[in-house]
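Look over this entry.
=====
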Amino acid sequence: MTQEEEEEAPQYPDDGEDILGNVKQLKVTKNELLYLSDSVTLLIEHSSEDGRIYIPARQLMPSAGVPVPIELIQIIGMGFLSLADKSNTSNTTILSLTISDLYLLRECCQSFVKVNDEFVGYNLLVKIYDLILEEALMERKFINKITAGLDLTLDTRSRVEIMTQLLDKIMKESTDEATK
């Protein structure tokens, strides 16, 4: 494998690392924030004799269909306040969210929803999936790059032949890089 291919190869977290806790940066517009704020409700923890239970702070309405922890509501609120600030001339803000938060927000998004002529549901789905599936997309691009030009049809060739062809290509590229 060439040095460039090694640099582009996907990096995987350690087995013990919790990927749902990884933090990603979601860039959102004012309309998207309005939609998110209207689509979530506060999830409150109550103690009972047998343990803890979690219930929404209000009856779930069609517009606020996903109960979320207070921390997520605060993140959305801070983003909204930063865009509402008169001294802020930007039309977007960045929300730092965990993968787990992104999955919760994904549940809010309906692709057909428009706010002020902006397809906020669709736009948010694209952005959220880009962040959630970022490593899988990088892996797919990497595999497509290293297998470009290889005949991968299985009906006429064995898997051993295909792997041999792939290894020969990688070794040739490594040799070419070493001679440069």
Remarks:
- The two ends are 15 Å apart (CA to CA).
- The chain has a mean pLDDT of 79.
- The longest strand covers residues 40-48.
- The first helix runs from residue 3 to 8.
